[in-house]
Fold this sequence. Notes:
There is one protein chain. By secondary structure, this protein is of the alpha+beta class. Helices cover 28% and strands 36% of the residues. The protein contains 9 helices and 28 strands. The chain has helices at residues 2-14, 18-28, 31-37, 52-59, 63-82, 86-90, 98-118, 123-148, 152-182; strands spanning 193-198, 203-208, 214-218, 221-228, 235-241, 258-264, 274-280, 282-287, 292-297, 302-307, 312-318, 323-328, 334-339, 344-349, 354-360, 365-370, 376-381, 386-391, 396-402, 407-412, 418-425, 430-438, 443-449, 454-459, 465-470, 475-480, 485-491, 496-502. β26 (475-480) and β27 (485-491) form a beta hairpin. The protein is globular and about 75 Å long. The N and C termini lie far apart (56 Å).
Amino acid sequence: xxxxxxxxxxxxxxxxxxxxxAQAEHDAHHPAQQQEQAPSAxxxxxxxxxxxxxxxxxxxxxxxCITAMQQMMQGGMHGAMNASNPAEAAAPGTNAPDxxxxxxxxxxAMHGPMMEGVMADDPDTAFVRGMIPHHQGAIDMARxxxxxxxxxxxxxxxxxxxxxxxREIAEMDAWLTEKASTEAIDFGQTGGTVWSADEGGSSISxxxxxxxxxxxxxxxxxxxxVDLTPDGRFLLAVGTPATGDHGDGHxxxxxxxxxxxxxxxxxxxxxxxxxxxxxxxxAHVVADRNGRAFVSLSGSDEIAVVDLAQGxxxxxxxxxxxxxxxxxxPNGAELYVANVEDGTVSVIDTASLTExxxxxxxxxxxxxxxxxxxxxxxVSLRDENRVAVIDTASREVTGRIEVGPNPIQMIATxxxxxxxxxxxxxxxxxxxTVSVIDTASGEVAKTLKTGPGAHGVSASADGAFVFVTNIADDSxxxxxxxxxxxxxxxxxxxxxxGIVHGLSN
Length: 505
């Protein structure tokens, strides 16, 4: 227990700003002054300049921790002050042993998430979010000594630490999930339901905005995308038949297994759904007001047009290579389709059901989004970390906007003032941001922090909220548009991808 507490103390000190460290060094050499300011603490321990959350945690620490922190500050304060960040202060020389470099790397990886965690508004949540990366740091260090150490005792301790800390991390993760599900988000007058396509769980999650309840039901496919028909009669989901082993849906390989369009009753997801075989690797689906659904087939470079009343594919339209995200123009006259592998966007005439144009846009376009007036289309360029802007009248790219890592889906707010872009990052390094583009200036006005693997985006009909699926966090982040803040997170099924909001009938 003392070893764990001392490690936490080191993490706290490493994360303090330079100004606090400077004051701490002064206090350490003037114990009489410090004793008057903080009589409950050790008379040689700096407390006066620290943020309240640090003082509170330090006052609860045992004497051994206080002593260790004092010795560390007195011995290495000037080095920490001269470094721009804790990693630089602790960086080992190039000739340092492999195990030393591994230990320092593990500590560096722990500090940032710990400091971010303890900044949570709620004290209980701050403790848990701070302790999870701390425990992970202990696990990482234990694994290093298992690899490099020779003493049987240290390896035995390491095994005990790994077992105990992994158990506690699991318990803390479960606590955070339960707390998130019980913390009510005030949606005001916004009603309806948000549905997420949980590709990893072969399920659909429905978030009732009136009650805050979440219902997750299994479906016959691993759904990559979901949409609601304009009349609210069907909730549509597309994907490959459920097998229990799914990825993030953006690197499907070609294959013989036919994908399905699933037609669900949005009022009762438990009712047996109707299914339509559509083709190889369906990616996205949108529905128009004429009773049709358009499904992009990444495996065969085409769009399947489904008559929902008949429950059958009636037409197929050729596109560019690997069609993925697609959306209808506000007037329903055109369908824009992002073709990932050839860097183009196909423009489909929905009356003649033919490809009217193909527009070069950039590297790996994934999804498109219309402004409400239909004058512009925004296209995420995953491999450029940018968004292209198309003028729909000229069908030309008029601008490109830098956003976060690996942008995936985006959507314009109903008032047309902003476009929200989810930056997913990679599997190895999931990103957790949403870029908010000001459509008037053509620049990113704000970057919001959501959850790891930000992927799908939908806006409420009244424009009050934007919803973002977090593929690596199994959650949906809720953004208050007026405040431009993430106001909460809702746990859903495994690896949520596409998302849509709809009003209750």
